[in-house]
Structures are given as structure tokens and as C-alpha cells.
Specification:
Shape: globular
Number of strands: 9
Radius of gyration: 15 Å
CATH class of one domain: Alpha Beta
Largest sheet: 4 strands, antiparallel
Order of helices and strands: EHEEHHEEEEEHHEH
Length: 171
């Protein structure tokens, strides 16, 4: 059986994935529908639970952007289907956190999700205050909410070169 996980990333880490042919090194931290997430989101259906895990990965991408000032200010989330036997749930870290015991090969990626160019200003501002928002700063949370108002665009895995190189896949 396979499990859908959402791995937070940046354009720079996506470039490393393209070069290495895998997401790594192990363990790979991601987000998924976990028992703790199900308990927390008791009223949600499966799609809502998946979206909650995906949203947590997008928020984690903001933290990664803050740590890497040279990468483009776009959140990236990688959707991957990995063997359930390789996934360990970590409710001690957060309700949807999982770790995959080995690198995730590109062949396990289902798709890529990346902010559009119109989101860069809001994402840059949010990345700069993500930690403060995590610590309860309401003004910082307002800025993060502004970035989270942008939906990430969907890309096929075969479009990784265009995404990393900043070209429109349809051009």
C-alpha cells in the first residue's frame, strides 16, 4: 500500500531533486493524513484532510524560504506516493508530520505545486515573519495569511525543468 505525502520544498531544493533524481537525504520529512490529524479534524472528509496536510507542507515551505534567502520567493510542495512501510508518523512534531525512511525517488512524485509569480511579494513578506507567526504574533499571522491566500499552481513532474528554470511550461 502507498501513502500520499506532501514534502515542503523551495525552487532551490527542487533543483537539487532534479539533479539527484530523488528527494533526500533520508529521512525525508513531509506531511500526510495521520491518525492525529484525523482526530484533530474530526468533521473533515478525506479531501479536507489531504488539503490540511498539504497546507501544513506549504507553511513549512515558508520556513524553508526564510532559511534560504537566495532562492526565489515561491513556496513549493511535492506530492509523492511512497510505500506505507517507509513512513513513520511523528505526532510529537505536529499533527500531520511524517518521516520517510529513505530518499524519495522522482518516480514516486505525483506532481509539483508552486506559487505563481503574482504571489512572490506576499510570499517574501510571509517568509520573513513565519517564525513570529508560529510563535503567536497576530500581525505576523496576518502577513502569512496573505501568502496563504494564493493557491499553489499544479505542475506535472515532467515540467520540473521549466519550473526550476523559471519558464512557463506551455511556452
Amino acid at each position: 500500500m502507498r501513502v500520499r505525502i506532501y514534502v515542503p520544498a523551495t525552487v532551490s531544493t527542487l533543483d537539487a531533486v532534479r539533479t539527484a533524481g530523488e528527494v533526500g537525504p533520508a529521512p525525508v520529512t513531509g506531511f500526510a493524513v495521520t491518525p492525529t490529524l484525523r482526530e484533530w479534524y474530526a468533521e473533515g472528509d478525506e479531501d479536507e484532510l489531504e488539503y490540511a496536510a498539504f497546507s501544513d507542507a506549504a507553511r513549512a515551505s515558508l520556513r524553508m524560504l526564510d532559511a534560504d534567502p537566495l532562492t526565489p520567493r515561491r513556496r513549493v510542495v511535492l506530492s509523492a506516493d511512497v510505500p506505507e512501510s517507509t513512513v513513520t508518523v511523528h505526532p510529537d512534531l505536529d499533527r500531520a508530520v511524517v518521516r520517510v525512511s529513505g530518499p524519495v525517488p522522482v518516480s514516486s512524485l505525483a506532481c509539483l505545486h508552486v506559487d505563481g509569480a503574482d504571489a512572490e511579494k506576499d510570499v517574501a513578506a510571509a517568509a520573513a515573519v513565519a517564525l513570529e507567526a508560529d510563535l503567536g504574533d497576530e500581525d505576523a499571522q496576518f502577513v502569512v495569511d496573505g501568502a496563504e491566500g494564493h493557491e499553489l499552481e499544479w505542475y506535472d513532474v515532467t515540467e520540473i525543468d521549466q519550473v526550476v528554470d523559471g519558464r512557463r511550461p506551455d511556452s
